[in-house]
Description:
5-stranded parallel sheet, Rossmann fold, about 110 residues, about 40% helix, 4 helices
Amino acid sequence: MVVARIEAERGSIAKMLETAGHKVFSLGNIEKLVGYLAEEIDIVFCDVVPDRGPELAVIQQWREQSPRTAFILIAAQGLVREAVAAMKAGAHDYLLRPMASVDSLTCWLLN
């Protein structure tokens, strides 16, 4: 699952993952993610938005209902504090932008 506000970024990440052979769902905002709780989703790549509460609430809700799903946050350099707060809410890790290749996105799938 790829969740990103910016369509070009969302499409780029989804394409990298699809090219690597992964089935990908993509959404424009994290609030819509709860509609996918019935799906077996292994990993969610989600962009970090400053000063937004819904991300933390959705991550917590998802982790309660589907604890095996890994959340990997994608943060700009200045949003590390927000990424760490999301990790405290249940995210597994974060990646910093810019991401040069699919390797940085699929590292979790290989480990």
